[in-house]
Amino acid sequence: MMFRYMAILLLCALSLIVLGALVTREVQPLPGGFNAPLVSTVQPTLIWLEQAHVFMTWVVGGLTLGLIGWLQWRVRRPWPRSLGLAALLILGLEGWLGMQGVRSSLSPAIGFFHASLAPVLFSILVAIAAGVIAQKERIQPLKDPGRPSFRSLTVAVSVLTLLQVVLGAAYRHGLLGVLTHILNALVITLTVLVVSIPLIRAFPGHPSLRPAALGLAVVTAVQVSLGFGTFIVLLIGAGSSTTLSFLSVAHGATGAITLAASLLLTILVWQNLCSSNPKT
Ligand code: HEM
Fold first, then answer.
1. 185: Cβ below 6 Å to ligand 1?
2. Angle between helices 2-27 and 108-134 (to 10 degrees)
3. pLDDT tens readout for residues 144-183
4. Which atom of ligand 1 is nearest to the CA of 119?
5. What is the mean pLDDT of the chain?
6. First-to-last CA distance in the chain?
7. Do residues 262 and 216 make contact, with C-beta atoms less than 8 angstroms apart?
8. Atom of ligand 1 nearest to the CA of 20
9. How far apart are CA 267 and CA 260, in angstroms?
10. CB-based contacts of 84: which residues, under 8 Å, 6+ apart?
C-alpha cells in the first residue's frame, strides 16, 4: 500500500518538474543568448502550463502532508521522519519562490534557486521511499571491499551530482557559463564508472546494490547524452523548436532522476556495507 503511495507521489513530483521546465521554456530565453523559438509563443499554452504546474504543486503538497502523517505514526527511525519535514519545508519554499513569477517571469536568481531545489526535493522523496522499504528488512552489513571505500566514493558521486544540478540551473538562468557544467559532467561520468563497475563486480548477486549501481550508470549515460544533444542543437541552431524543447526538458527531468539515483546508491551502500577499518 505504502509502496504504491510513494510511487504515485514520485510520479507526481516528476510531472511537477517537467511542467516547471516547460513553463520556463515558454517564458525565459534560452541560455547563452540563443534565441531559438520556444515550444509555442501562443499565450493559452503558457496559461494552461502554468495552471497545470500550480495544480500539480497542490497535489504533491497534499501527498507529502499525507506521507508526513504516516511517517510520524508508523515509522520509528528518526531519519525518514526528519526527511519528510525537510521535504515539506522545501516544497513550501519552492511554492513561495514560484509565486514570485506569477505576474512576470522569475528573476535569474529566483529562477536559479527554484530550479536547483526541485531535484533536491525529488531526491529527498526517493530517499524516504528507500527508508520506508528498508524498514521491513533486517540487513546484516557486509564488509566494504572498496579501495577507497564504496561508502566514501558514493558520497563523492552524490556531492558532485548535486553540484552539477546547481551548475546546470545557474547556466539555464544565465548566471554562469556552460564550461564548468560540461567539465563537471566528465568528472561525474568517470566517478560513476569507478564506483558502479567495481560495485557490480564485487556484489554480482546482491538484490539492491547491483540494480542501484547499474541504474545509476545507465541514467548517467542517458543524462550526459541528453546534455550533449541539447548543447549541440543550441550551438548549431539546428533542429526544430520541438526537438530542442524535448531535449532540454528531458535533460532537466533526468537531472533530477540522476541526483536521486546517486543518493539512493549512497543510502543503500551505507545501509549494506560497513567499514572494513574497525576504527571507523
Ligand atoms: C550527470 C550529468 C548532468 C546533470 C546531472 C545535468 C543537470 C542539468 C540540470 C539540472 C540543468 C538545468 C535544467 C533546467 O533548469 O531546466 C542542466 C542544464 C543544461 N545542461 Fe546539463 N547536466 C549534466 C550533463 C550535461 C552535459 C554533458 C552537457 C553537455 C554539454 C549538458 C548541457 C546542458 C545544457 C546546454 C543546459 C541548459 C539547456 C536547457 O535545459 O535549457 N549537461 N543540466
1. yes
2. 170
3. 887 889 999 999 999 999 999 999 999 999 899 999 999 9
4. 10
5. 87
6. 38
7. yes
8. 16
9. 10
10. 64, 67, 68, 71, 72, 128
Domain-embedded: residue 232: yes
pLDDT digits (tens, 9 = 90+) for 207-259: 899 999 999 999 999 999 999 999 998 888 765 677 888 899 999 999 999 99
CA dist 10 and 265 (Å) reads: 17
- Binding site membership of 158 for ligand 1 (Cβ less than 6 Å): no
Q: For residue 54, what are the domain limits?
A: 2-274
For residue 31, the 8-state DSSP code is G
Q: State whether the beta carbon of 234 lies less than 6 angstroms from ligand 1.
A: yes
Q: Among 27, 112, 230, say which to mutate for ligand 1: greatest number of ligand atoms within 8 Å of CB.
A: 230
In a domain, 266, yes or no: yes
- Residue 279 belongs to some domain of the structure: no
Cell numbers describing residue 119: 531535484
User: Which stretch of DSSP H or E encloses residue 121?
Assistant: helix 108-134
**Number of structural domains the chain divides into:** 1
Mean pLDDT of 52-79: 90
Beta carbons of 112 and 169 less than 8 angstroms apart: yes
